[in-house]
Amino acid sequence: MRKVFMLFLVMTVCMVSGCEKKPNNSTIDDGNEKEEIQIIGENEVFIDEEIVLTINQEAEGFIWKSENEEIATVHEGLVKGINKGEVVIYLEKDGDRVSEHKILVKSYIPERIEIINILEVYEVGETVYQLQARAYPEYSLQEFVWEGTLSKMNLNSETGEVQFLDDGDIYIVCRSKLDKSVFKTVKLNVKYPDNVKVTNILFIGNSLTYRNDVPGMVSKLAKVDGKVVKCDSYTVGGNTLGQILSTRSFYIKQMLNSKKYDYIIIQEASSSNYLEFENFLSAAKEFKRLADENGAELILYQTWAYNYETYHTRYYQQQRIIEAYDRVAQELGVRVNIVGEVFFDFTMDYPDINFYDDLNHASLAGSYLASCVHYISLFDSNLIDNTFTDNLDPEIARIIREYVQNYFFKNNKLKRNVR
Fold first, then answer.
1. From CA 296, how far away is CA 265, in angstroms rounded?
2. Residue 27: phi, psi to the nearest 5?
3. Exposed (0-12), middle (13-18) or buried (19+): which is 225, by Cβ within 10 Å?
4. b/e code 22-39 from CB counts within 10 Å (16+ = b)
5. Which residues, 6 or more positions from 200, have their beta carbon under 8 angstroms from its beta carbon?
6. How many CB atoms lie within 10 A of CB 215?
7. Rounded to the nearest 5 degrees, what angle is found at the Cα of 357, between the Cα atoms of 352 and 359?
8. How far is CA 380 from the centre of its chain?
9. Cβ atoms 362, 211 nearer than 8 A
10. β-bridge partners, 145
11. pLDDT at 36
């Protein structure tokens, strides 16, 4: 009985095994041997590029498919990259997947950029520096677009060659040529060579200083004259010097702590210099103290009278302004840049050249004269041959420069402006 049972068990197992559906083994039986079907080809493709996959044997009835057509598509073995990522390309027959092939879709667009040859210090001058960058992953397109502040440098946007025109912390941006949103910004430390004299000036005042950018004009006159003059400014529209000290002293001190200045030039409000003389004197004393701490020379920026219709009214106010600045200068032992005096006399001699934008603000021509007075007072330079005009009519600019030059040298005003 035991033998009969064992025989029955064996027969049952064999019957079950013979009836079970066998898994697809991805082979073709040619009558001699079974060969596994394989997809052959590269495992990487770039976006918008194509590769060809093949089968290791001749076969019919297979369908090419992609697990994710948002990453890559396939048609008769031709695979096209669509988006970055991994995808499985496979063969299907009779509803069964018979072979697989993994594809990595890459992008030439970098994930990040690094600037690889940064120096500790760059110099203003004739030297042309070659900036270099590297895009990662390394198979990314190594083509870049370079950007920077063009007033500070001559920069070739394609090659990264740069020549610096000014000093300071200068920022340069390197972008991927394929995708401008992928970029690297770097701060470069640029200095003038040790043999170049750099003059640093700080202007403090209100809109009479910042209208038409008088400090910037002084710098540009110097540049044409072959000098390096760096002009910073701290100005608040409508404020007196006392108001600036009471509300903005933190920022003034911050500027003075960050840089050593050669000159600090202060400008009082239009009529406050004589109507509120004691406040003017008090503020000037504090600025003198700050200038001494910084090692700078304090200079007073004498302003001009209002654009009154009558000569006598203008003359009277101009004299009061001159007197107020002279008194402060004598009290503190400092110089006055006599902008207002020259401004007034010029308008008398050349009434057809407009020097006012409104009641008290200078026109471009008036600001140009102011910058010329500051420049010749500080540097005793020849203005006549200077070609900087700041978009002013060249003939008017020439008249102003010659007038200021003659005003100082023919009348010995350079001696008199030390009051």
1. 10
2. -130, 165
3. middle
4. eeeebeeeeeeeeeebeb
5. 230, 232, 259, 260, 261, 262, 263
6. 22
7. 100
8. 35
9. yes
10. 175
11. 87
d(CA 202, CA 255): 9
Closest CA to 192 of 228, 237, 246: 228
Whole-prediction pTM: 0.72
For the beta carbon of residue 110, count every other beta carbon within 10 angstroms. Answer: 26
- Three-state DSSP at 287 gives helix
Tens of pLDDT, residues 167-204: 999 999 999 999 999 999 999 999 999 999 999 999 99
Query: Peptide bond preceding 193: is omega within 30 degrees of 0, i.e. cis?
Result: no
The DSSP bridge pattern shows strands 161-164 and 153-155 to be antiparallel
Q: Residue 128 has what pLDDT?
A: 97
At 27 the pLDDT is: 52
Bin 230: left if φ > 0, else alpha if -120 < ψ < 50, else beta: beta
What's the token pair of residue 336?
């006055």
Report whether pLDDT(256) > 80: yes
Joined together, the tokens standing for residue 137 give 């992953």
How far, CA to CA in Å, does 289 sit from each of 178, 281, 335?
Answer: 56, 12, 15
